[in-house]
UniProtKB/TrEMBL annotation:
Family membership noted in the UniProt record: Belongs to the GON7 family.
GO cellular component, one term: nucleus
Organism: Glomerella acutata (Colletotrichum acutatum)
Protein name: EKC/KEOPS complex subunit GON7
Keywords tagged on the record: Activator, Chromosome, Nucleus, Telomere, Transcription, Transcription regulation, tRNA processing
Length: 109
């Protein structure tokens, strides 16, 4: 447990997430949060609130980055396979959006 009588600044705690892929550029999200100055419930609560906000920001950043990479991959695939694939991908994406969070209906393919 940290010394609560110390006048030194609380150490910074680091939160980070890194994405690496063989086909896309890597990216990292990182943020430093000051450690709670004491073990008092109010200080711990404030720290956990800041951590929660940081995690939400990380999730938003990661989702944007992954969505951009998915779009890049789709564009590369469409260019490689021609326009027919792009049309099929658009239909599949619409079906996925329609059925999001539910079991997929049986396919007639």
């Amino acid at each position: 447990m940290a010394d609560t009588n110390s006048t030194a600044a609380a150490p910074a705690l680091h939160f980070s997430a890194t994405y690496q892929s063989p086909t896309n550029e890597p990216f990292t999200f990182s943020e430093s949060l000051p450690a709670p100055p004491s073990s008092a419930p109010g200080d711990k609560s404030a720290y956990l609130n800041a951590l929660r906000k940081s995690i939400n920001a990380a999730q938003e950043h990661i989702n944007k980055e992954l969505t951009a990479r998915m779009e890049e991959d789709k564009a590369k695939e469409a260019a490689k396979n021609g326009g027919a694939t792009a049309t099929k991908l658009a239909v599949d994406e619409a079906l996925e959006e329609e059925n999001y969070g539910e079991e997929a209906p049986p396919s007639d393919d």
